[in-house]
Write a structure and sequence with these properties.
Order of helices and strands of chain B: HH
Oligomer: heterodimer
Distance between the termini of chain A: 48 Å
Radius of gyration of chain B: 15 Å
Number of helices of chain B: 2
Structural class of chain A: mainly alpha
Structural class of chain B: mainly alpha
Strand content of chain A: under 5%
Number of strands of chain B: 0
Chain lengths: 228, 63
């Protein structure tokens, strides 16, 4: 079972490798946490299913709850708990990717613009220069701290509801003004920001207080061409 | 007892299938089902199994 999960791990690794130029991995590379969570979760879910089928057949052949107790306890109590835990771990991680955000067709123009090397929109500049390594949408649209993560997840659930129920209007717009704190979380401590002529010392308090928006000078954040 | 356990098996199997779908590649559809359906399915399966075990113990004590 775990073998099936590890096989899936290799398949996903191979497909990831074919999508981008091969980069030599460090000595002893055994994959990412995400790939292992996926492989482990798949293996555990498959094991649960197989034990359930065996237990079902055992019951049909005259077995009792008592004789099959150990297997039933594993398949109905212990393994589901493990599968749920790994599922949350893997699911939440994967829902932070750009691919997940682009899963709804209304977001496709934004993702296309993000990935367009010719685009000069702020998000595209961050993407093509890899100012953020991955999870680009999530990194810039989540507040810092524990509650930031929680509120971003809740917003994600709301977005799914709006998308499924069709309760959204085009063009897609950000729900509330973009807070400077999200930019300053990375930039505030950088010397490039602090010593830039574009950020004179007398203006910095206004930027930190949010009285002046970063996007006033650095926008637009997105230039989706196909958005209607 | 058996029908209860069989129902529990069916519910847990449905939950495990949804989990297999999730682990074969996460997207918002299967993650939504994972969040909304899988937990109730597994909890319901566990409860049915627990009821079957309690009834089994009770019947053993009675005899």
């Amino acid at each position: 079972m775990i073998g099936a999960g590890v096989a899936l791990l290799w398949v996903t690794e191979a497909s990831a490798a074919s999508a981008a130029p091969a980069v030599a991995q460090p000595e002893g590379w055994i994959g990412t946490t995400t790939q292992w969570a996926q492989g482990l979760g798949f293996g555990l879910a498959l094991l649960t299913l197989i034990l359930l089928v065996i237990a079902w057949r055992g019951l049909r052949r005259g077995g009792s709850v008592r004789t099959l107790g150990g297997m039933l306890f594993l398949a109905l109590t212990l393994l589901p708990l493990l599968v749920m835990f790994v599922g949350y771990l893997h699911g939440f991680q994967e829902m932070e990717t750009v691919q997940a955000c682009g899963g709804c067709h209304v977001m496709t123009p934004f993702v296309n613009d993000l990935k367009d090397p010719k685009s000069e929109a702020l998000a595209a500049v961050h993407y093509k220069n890899r100012y953020i390594q991955d999870n680009h949408c999530y990194s810039c649209h989540t507040d810092y701290g524990m509650f930031g993560t929680a509120s971003a997840k809740l917003a994600g659930v709301r977005h799914i509801y709006y998308y499924v129920s069709g309760r959204y209007t085009l063009p897609i717009k950000i729900a509330s003004p973009y807070p400077n704190a999200r930019c300053l979380g990375c930039h505030a401590e950088s010397q490039k920001f602090l010593n830039s002529d574009g950020h004179p010392k007398e203006d910095q308090p206004q930027l930190f207080a949010g009285a002046m928006s970063c996007l006033d000078c650095h926008g637009p954040p997105h230039t989706p061409k196909e958005a209607k | 007892m058996k029908p209860l356990v069989q129902a529990a098996i069916v519910l847990a199997a449905a939950g495990a299938l949804l989990c297999l779908w999730l682990f074969s590649g996460v997207n918002w559809v299967n993650f939504f089902f994972f969040m909304v359906l899988v937990q109730p399915l597994f909890v319901a399966a566990f409860l049915l199994f627990a009821i079957a075990v309690v009834r089994d113990i009770a019947s053993r004590r009675a005899t």
